[in-house]
Every structure is written in C-alpha cells, then in structure tokens.
Design a protein that fits this description.
TIM Barrel; alpha/beta; 8-stranded parallel beta barrel; 2 domains; 425 residues; Lyase, Ornithine Decarboxylase, Chain A, domain 1; 13 helices; elongated; 9-stranded mixed β-sheet
Length: 425
C-alpha cells in the first residue's frame, strides 16, 4: 500500500494533499485545524487490511476527533463507533451512524445517558461495574428492551506511552477485576434485561509493542473459559465477543520507529486465530486513524529572545492544543515555506498566548528564522487536538477545515466573542 503523507512541500509551499495551506490562510486566517480526507481513508484501509484475518467489527474511538465530517467519512467506509458519553452518541447519530453500530464505553455513564442510549437502540454497552449493571438493567426494564453487554475487565497489565494513558493496571479507575466479572456472571439471572455476551479490554494508548495486549488477551481468554460466560452465550446459540480495544501507536517523532500496525496485528492474529470459530472480535482504533490526518495551523505574533534562544509567540496555545502540557507530548513543527539549504537555522521554542507557564507547544526545535506574520504547522494533531480544546482565558476555539483532493471546505467555523457569552446572556 502506497504511504502518502497528508502534508508535503510542493513548489516550496507546504500543502495538504493538493491544496496550498497558504491559500487556505488567505481565505479564513488562523488559527485552524486542517485535516486530510485522503489520509483518513488510507489509514482506515491499512488498519482494516492488517486485521482482516480476524474479521473484527471496527469501532472508531470518537473521542479522538469528534467532528461530524470526520465521523461521516468513517461511517461511509462502514466503520462503527465507540463512544464514551451521551454527547458523543448525539454526534454519531447526527453523522448518520446506524445505532446498531455504536458501542457505549466509559466509567461514569449517567442515568440520562443510559436512557438516551437504550432509547436509541445502540448495539452494545461496555459496562465497568456491578453497580452500573444494576442501573443499566433498571433503565432497560423501563423501556422493555434487552440490551447487549460486554464486561470491561481490568486485567492488571500496565502499558501505555505516559502514566495518564495507562488504563489496564490493578489500581485503574477503569473496568472491573476478573473476580467482580465472575460475580456478575453468576448473578446473570438478576439482570434479565442484560444480555451478557462479551468481554472488553483497553489497557492504554501509545502501546510500545503487542506484548502487553497479548498478556491482557490471555487474561480474557482464561476469563471466558472459566467464568461461565462461554456457557451463558452458548445457551443463546451464540459465541462470546472479544473486544480488544485500541491503543495502537503512531510515530510523533521523526526518525523514531514504532511498531507497525501490520506487525502489531500479526501477533494478535497469531494468538486469536485458533479461537476464531468460538469467538467474535471487535477492535477500537482512534489515534491511529486520525492523528496524522491533521495539523494545527498558527501564525507568529511576536518574536522574542529568552535565555539566549528564539521564542515565537503564536496565536494558539494550550487552549487549542492541550497535549504538550498534559502529556508532555511531542509534535513536529514545520514552517509553511520550505527551508532553503543555506538558510539560517535557530534554536526555537513555540509558545502560546495563554497566561500559564505550561503554555509551550514545542521546545528547543531547529527552525528557520521566522518572524511575525509567518505561519507554522503543528503536525499529527488530528487526534486529541480540537477535541480537547477549551475557551481558557476566554479564547475562541479554532476553525476546522477538511481538504479533499484539490478542494477544501470549512467544517467548523472559528468561534467568535459572541459565542463565548451566548449561553450567559
């Protein structure tokens, strides 16, 4: 499969697909998030091909990028959706998603959210405690519907690229320990409106390699074999669902290799293929599909010298992109004009306008000598970029733009000052 990056230089200017980013700036100004439809399709096809042997149902993790246009593109490819809130359910339905293709995860589902999801007749619920099972059973009873449920297990496997991205260890707030899951299955008769049919795991994000996922899968396979879940589903003439979650890595650094999705999938397929006749599979990619489709486009407002090196103040900071402050995340930075071979290079940091010392988007990068009015692209921000943006310091959130071949369109307008106070007037 040909690997075509979303952002490349053409005739000295940085393009998204076949559109000059400078042309977009001249139309809508900055700041804005910019996404490539072609790269999204490429990522989805690559991911689907990697896991094709298992024939899993793919549920995109909506929290990575919630824009309706992105959701619609994935829906058109036949993708399902993994949601974690009533708001995400509302979004996916507005994007035209089939309710049967939606799975509702999340540790703190509210009463009203469960009622909305049951009324919408979504496909699955990933439940995380006996207490949640009791609430969901009550909600389903009121509607008269039996709902499909997978138990999210906490397999006591620690993995992830940052402590805040680790979700499968014993002390995590997410999921239930295997013993709690066994207790719930033994009480299946107490939950007549829940069809206990599967197990779900998600142990973390930016997983370095498949080893931790394979360890978690072993815990789940043992659970299915010994907990009574297999027999419970067999009485209905079905086989259990194993939802292995997501967390697949993407390369944020130039020159730093990560495990390819093909190698990641091959290890998982090798472990699960012998059970394919007795299990159905689901998988929940998020970051892998959308991270490298996006860039945050910003313009330089001021240039300063601080402690002997160049600092550029741009028109978006942690209000637009929280990841560097929250996760100490690294994002590549490119000028919109291709650097010339003899051009002066400076040790440069990129900072935002927010009144916090943590408002630093990139530290100590080697960049051309940029000045106020020049623009930059912060790459690999299509996942957990706009979706984590805020109005801190009463800053309007950026616009969002989608490129499709030689054309671009605004898929979310930039907020205005009036938007900031619209709900307070």
């Amino acid at each position: 499969m040909i690997d075509t990056p979303a952002f490349q230089y053409h005739s000295g200017e940085l393009n998204c697909e076949n559109v000059s980013i400078m042309d977009i700036i001249s139309t809508i100004g900055t700041p804005f998030y910019l996404y490539s439809a072609a790269r999204l399709e490429q990522n989805y096809q690559r991911f689907s091909a990697a896991f094709a042997t298992l024939q899993p149902r793919i549920f995109y993790s909506v929290k990575a990028n919630t824009n309706l246009s992105i959701l619609h593109l994935l829906k058109e490819k036949g993708c399902g959706f993994d949601i974690v809130s009533g708001g995400e359910l509302f979004r996916t339905l507005n994007a035209g998603a089939s309710p049967a293709g939606i799975v509702f995860a999340g540790v703190g589902k509210m009463q009203a959210e469960l009622e909305f999801a049951v009324k919408s007749r979504i496909g699955w619920f990933n439940i995380e405690s006996i207490c949640e099972a009791e609430r969901l059973n009550s909600v389903a009873e009121q509607s008269g519907d039996v709902v499909k449920v997978a138990l999210r297990l906490r397999p006591d496997v620690k993995a992830g690229g940052h402590p805040y991205l680790v979700t499968g260890h014993a002390s995590s707030k997410f999921g239930m320990c295997p013993d709690e899951g066994i207790s719930l299955i033994k009480r299946a008769a107490d939950f007549p409106y829940l069809e206990l049919g599967g197990v779900h795991i998600h142990i973390g994000s930016q997983l370095a390699d498949p080893a931790a996922t394979l360890a978690a899968i072993d815990v789940v396979l043992d659970f299915i074999a010994t907990s009574g879940l297999g027999q419970l589903t067999k009485t209905r003439g079905k086989v259990p669902l194993l939802n292995i979650g997501g967390g697949f890595p993407v390369p944020y650094h130039d020159g730093v290799a990560v495990t390819s999705i093909e190698d990641f999938a091959a290890s998982i397929i090798s472990r699960l293929q012998p059970m394919a006749a007795n299990l159905n599979f689901a998988i929940e990619p998020g970051r892998f599909l959308t991270a490298d489709i996006g860039a945050l486009i910003l313009s330089v407002q001021y240039k300063k010298e601080v402690d002997g090196h160049c600092v550029l103040v741009v028109d978006g900071g942690i209000n637009a992109l929280l990841r560097p402050a929250l996760y100490d995340a690294y994002h590549r930075v490119l000028p919109l004009t291709s650097p010339k071979s003899n051009e002066e290079q400076l040790l440069t940091s990129i900072v935002g306008p927010i009144c916090e010392s943590s408002d630093v988007l990139a530290r100590n990068r080697i960049l051309p000598c940029l000045k106020p009015g020049d623009c930059i692209a912060i790459l690999d921000t299509g996942a957990y970029g706009f979706t984590m943006a805020s109005n801190y310091n009463s800053q309007p959130r950026p616009a969002e733009v989608l490129v499709e071949g030689k054309t671009f369109r605004l898929i979310r307008r930039r907020e205005t000052y009036n938007d900031l106070v619209a709900d307070e007037s």
